[in-house]
Amino acid sequence: MTESWVNYAERIGVDLHLELSGPGGRRAALTRALREAVRGGRLAPGTRLPPYRSLAADLGVARNTVADAYAELVAEGWLTARQGSGTRVAERARPLRQAVGAPARAPARARGPRHDLRQGRPDASAFPRAAWAASYRRALQAAPSEAFGPGDPAGRRELRETLAEYLARARGVRTEPDRIVICSGFAHALRLLFGRDTPGGTGGWGGPAGGGVLRGPLGVEGYGLGFHRDLLAAAGVRTVPLPLDEHGARVAALGRERAVLLTPAHQFPTGGPLRPERRAAVIDWARARGSVVLEDDYDGEFRYDRRPVGALQGLDPERVIHIGSVSKSLSPALRLGWMVLPERYVEPVLAAKGEREGWASVPDQLALADFMAGGSYDRHVRRMRQRYRGRRDRLVAALAERAPHIEVTGVAAGLHAVLRLPPGTEQTVVEAAARRGIALDGLAAFRHPDGPASAGDGLVVGYAAPADHAYGAALEALCEVLAAA
Ligand SMILES: Cc1ncc(COP(=O)(O)O)c(C=O)c1O
């Protein structure tokens, strides 16, 4: 078998990998390989093939072998040969997947819903492209060459220093750069903490062989993201649901769990902040039992009633792992987050990440450091806070007028609100909304399967997701559905 990278980039600007193998000698093998490259779409219609002589030299075959192979493919209609313009892939030589009747264009990705009121999504149209691009440019210009080598699994120091300062100022987190490990978001943090693969393992799992940094059973809130529950279940972690009320999780129900995962600033999705006595109680529980609290600070920056609550971590940095990301504040597409760790977990988490950074792009980390240090992050968060507050106010006002029987619960915070529905109506309303082109979830979608009492019927309305110009229509459609419910 002869294998060669045919580099004819200087002539036609592409590399072509050809594998000459199979029966019938080199001419037959080359003909087959070229035919497959055209048929499979690797050589697009119109592409100019290299001259006989250079392809022959690259492959180590006789010039006539190439000439014969080209001639055969011209005769079959795969190639065309014209005086003065060389040999090209025929325009009608459509790739195989089209020849067998697939649509001529790549199938469009499933189109989004007409009205997107799904929770957890920031307004993607508001991504601060210009400021981010400016930060990216500055970061690339300032970065030392070593920044483009393998990354440190802790994350770039520039970012960890900026984050330590930002989190202290904006969220009341008590930490220092060496206690921060950069990750690709909350889900990745969970994987690192509970993964049971080999160090830096493939398949997205970190964790020392034979067990993660932490173990279950893990106390969780009776309502939460199913995706996170699935992720924990896949790691073999048993989750124990805690009852909830408007003051967050009833942490007095904690017993022998080894850790507990909470959303203290704004319970997800029901919307109550963890009341102060419970904040103190869960820290006491962790101290008494040698356990740890995982704080999911997913939308802590977005509080609209001028009563922001600081991070739980500030109460005891040795008993709380504080986890945040830019998924709500900037974009879930960036995949950048952070874990603020008690000292004893720093080394195990770094071991779980492996020898080098395998998830969070270093240039992106440097761009975020610049974005935060230069004030762009604060500006963006302030702008989005105003925008989302305005949207929540519009939602509340529209419901008061059009569907006064529907109550909005939870504090004025975050990117979603919960609308209470009369008992037994949730499923019908979700279906009616879907028929009207509205994508949203009912509360039941978030309930832990072994959960205690149901939190009742409700809709989880993500008011942040639509672009500004689309929000009014989405609200109107929602009001129509609710007024008729
Ligand atoms: C409850 C909760 N936690 C955390 C996150 C952030 O997840 P990630 O950082 O993995 O994007 C989300 C985002 O959807 C969320 O809803």
Automatic annotation (TrEMBL):
Gene3D superfamilies associated with the record: Type I PLP-dependent aspartate aminotransferase-like (Major domain), Winged helix-like DNA-binding domain superfamily/Winged helix DNA-binding domain
Q: Where is the composition biased (Low complexity)?
A: 101-110
Can you name this protein? GntR family transcriptional regulator
Q: Does the keyword Transcription regulation apply?
A: yes
Alphabetized UniProt keyword annotations: DNA-binding, Pyridoxal phosphate, Transcription, Transcription regulation
The species is Streptomyces rubradiris (Streptomyces achromogenes subsp. rubradiris)
Q: Specify the HTH gntR-type domain's residue ranges.
A: 24-92
Query: Where does the record place the region Disordered?
Result: 100-124
Q: Which family does it belong to?
A: In the C-terminal section; belongs to the class-I pyridoxal-phosphate-dependent aminotransferase family.
Q: A Pfam family name for this chain?
A: GntR
